[in-house]
Amino acid sequence: MSPAFLSSIASRWFAHRWWLLGASVACMAVAFAAFNLAPPSVAFVAAVLVGPFVAGPWALLCACIWFHPERGNLLPHSKIVGKLPPFLQSGVRWYAVIFLTLFTVAAVVVFPILSVSWL
Fold it and tell me: Which residue windows are transmembrane per the record (predicted)?
């Protein structure tokens, strides 16, 4: 992944950012209810699914907010990052790309595999 790739994703998903936030929050609420009210077997299924269903929309939301080509917070013309020297701006963007990639892979792929293997 690169900042340009995440910018293309952000430009497609930016219009749906509030839906992504709502999906993450709703999945967290359902998981919380399942952990507290459901029998253990249902709670286990919720625990396996909570990673991808919460982190997937959350990662897309972060990509939209950080990398949108016109309104992104990590662009050279943004209020905070725009005041940094160009090499630091690039470093911050690449750090965010690496973090978001690792976060997505860990939550969508690794977390469910580990949850099932701990059964």
Answer: 18-38, 44-67, 92-114
Please count the structural domains in the chain: 1
pTM of the predicted structure, to 2 decimals: 0.85
Are 108 and 55 contacting, i.e. CB atoms less than 8 angstroms apart? yes
Q: What percentage of the chain reaches a pLDDT higher than 90?
A: 49
Q: For 51, phi and psi rounded to 5 degrees? A: -60, -60
What is the four-CA torsion angle of 100, 80, 24, 46, rounded to 10 degrees?
Answer: 50
Say if residues 68 and 7 touch (Cβ distance below 8 Å): yes
Print the domain residue range for 55.
3-117
115 and 47 in contact (C-beta within 8 Å)?
yes
